[in-house]
Amino acid sequence: MAKITYKHPNGTDTVVDVPSPNTVMRGAKINNIDGIEAQCGGSAQCGTCHVYVDEANTLPLPPMHESEDDVLYGTACPRRPNSRLSCQLPVTDEIDGLVVHLPEAQS
Amino acid sequence: MAGSPAPPAPPVSSVVIVGAGQAGADTAAALRGRGFSGRITLVGEEEALPYRRPPLSKGYLGGTVDAGDLELLPASSYADQGIDLVLGDRAARIDPEERSVVLDSGTRLSYDRLVLATGARPRRLPVPGADLDGVMTLRGLADAAALREALRGTLREGGHLLVVGGGFVGLELAATARGMGLEATVVEVGPRLMARALSPGMSEHLRAEHLRQGVRVLLRREVAALRGDASGHVRVAELDGGERVQADLVVFGVGVRPGAELAAAAGLEVGDGILVDRWLRTSDPAIHAIGDCARFPSARYGRQLRLESVQNASDQARCAAAAICGDPAPYEAVPWFWTEQYATRLQIAGITDGHDRAVTVGDPSGGRFSVLCFRGERLLGAESAGRPADHMIVRRLLAAGGAGLSPGEAARPGFDLKEYQGRSRQPA
Ligand SMILES: Cc1cc2nc3c(=O)[nH]c(=O)nc-3n(C[C@H](O)[C@H](O)[C@H](O)COP(=O)(O)OP(=O)(O)OC[C@H]3O[C@@H](n4cnc5c(N)ncnc54)[C@H](O)[C@@H]3O)c2cc1C
Ligand code: FES
Predict the structure, then answer these.
(1) Which of B182, B203, B223, B383 counts the most CB atoms within 10 A of its CB?
(2) Signal sequence: where (chain B) (predicted)?
């Protein structure tokens, strides 16, 4: 279980408790947080679950696989150094307090 | 229809969605995501909670994915969001004058806006023996559960699978069956596999892969009849030339019929799908149609399209939800699609049908390459095997109109899309 903050482009926040096992993408979907589409259902193929991890983040996130890196070449909003696919971020106790920023668009 | 102005936006207090598949469930979520506070009723004839179909022919059949993993959302999410789910009931009739829908159970639901997201049903070829035991189709979870059992049973008995049709569902099924160790034959009437969706080059790559994996691929061949044993179970297929193929399990993967009956009976315009305008409105402006069942005019491709993909279902759901919330925009999303066969992950961006020039980039012999398809100087789309970055970059190029990259440039020796994007993307 982890508390996750999803920051919307309009400045509002949604804070939810997401049980494990889940991903940061799934946490947004089950709480109907607008701004995560996840068309491929979490198989790192669609790039519509793009998030920017908060710049001040110190929580341990898994390293990026090649396929995630590849998909981030074509997200609707520009890739930044803190870009991740939220379907590739498992929810564990270690990421309790994670803050992610939602991009303006996913597709 | 395409020239009519954007729809007016009278206040809407109740939305009924018929069909609780990808498009229907995404519409309900998108309405709430936009802050729609009226009543939403999502009606589905299947008993299961709305689920993702792509794994049905992949991980679910192979046994690596369970039914529970397919759910789009847990039941609690619908309750939390105030979405009334009516499952295991079918919309039997629409009364457009009264703006209501009558279900099989007799329930009558009235609407301000109706969204038809009825999907499609698999076709069966009308050949003798098509109704024998062991002859199946694959569309829903119930089909997939039965097929999963049948594949295991056939494997135990040392039987042989026959897939009729070389489209993506049949090919994924053949690949999964081979992965389980089953003998498999694919019979396709056309000259190549996935002919509607793929360029000849990529289609041939796929055929070579199936042959390498031990699938028998018979092109330009037709099944003339299926023959059963004394107990009425299919055992043999007779092909057009008289050849007989062992077939202890037969699956038709010969395309679908869009779910347009309900719309047609209500007097809406139909024709291989429910006809909609650029805002995805049917000929009755209070009724939208989206997903596999809808035929829409595409400005991007200059013709009418009916697409069968998660992307299309999901983006059309958002488009319809926006229109219902009084914020209409024409549907112009870039189409894309994926299929997985063996270790090959194939992604298609745009619609490559109708191209007159194909440029291959990457490493075809290593199975990681893309075919960029142009019509004249314009990029129509690309097919990428094991090249997700190419796929994603082409989606962005298409979103920007597809005019930037010329076939001449793509054909330059050493051309690389990642490098091209690095050069052409404006600094953020
Ligand atoms: C085996 C398989 C594999 C696939 N793999 C991929 C893939 O890899 N990638 C990809 O992009 N796409 C794939 N697709 C296609 C994708 O799943 C569909 O395009 C998508 O599901 C379409 O969504 P939809 O909501 O329009 O239709 P559906 O998901 O079919 O939903 C329609 C629903 O409406 C219900 N319904 C119909 N009529 C009524 C009625 N009168 N009353 C109540 N309910 C009704 C149906 O029972 C059904 O549940 C696959 C499809 C299949 C079958
Ligand atoms: S859900 Fe598709 S890439 Fe994450």
Answers:
(1) B383
(2) none
**Is the Cβ–Cβ distance between A52 and A103 less than 8 Å?**
yes
Domain B135-252 in CATH 3.40.50.720? The answer is no
| pLDDT band (50, 70, 90) for residue B422 | confident
- Express each pLDDT in B213-244 by its tens digit: 999 999 999 999 999 999 999 999 999 989 99
Instruction: Say yes or no: ipTM exceeds 0.90.
Output: yes
Cβ(B16)–Cβ(B111) under 8 Å?
Answer: yes
Q: Please tell me which residue of chain A has the smallest CA distance to B426.
A: A78
Q: What percent of chain B has pLDDT over 70?
A: 97
Q: What global pTM score does this model have?
A: 0.96
Single out the residue of B6, B100, B17, B23 nearest to residue B290, CA to CA: B23
Tokens (6 digits) for B15: 């939305």
- What does B245-256 look like in DSSP terms, one character per residue? EE-SEEEE-S-E
Tell whether ligand 1 has an atom less than 6 A from the beta carbon of residue B255: no
Q: To which residue do tokens 């790559």 refer?
A: B205
Q: Do B310 and A37 touch (CB under 8 A)?
A: no
- The 10 Å CB-count burial string (b at 16+, else e) for B64-81 is ebeeeebbbbeeebbeeb
Assess whether pLDDT exceeds 70 at residue B80: yes
Q: Any idea where the domains of chain A sit in the sequence?
A: 2-101
In angstroms, the Cα distances linking A60 to A67, A95, A97 are 20, 7, 11
What's the CATH superfamily of A2-101?
Beta-grasp domain (3.10.20.30)
Q: Name the minimum distance, in Å, from the CA of B221 to any CA of chain A.
A: 34
**Same fold flag, B14-121+256-324 and B135-252:** yes
Ligand nearest to the CA of A43: 2
The CA distance from B345 to B245, in Å, is 30
CA of B55 to the centre of ligand 1 (A): 12
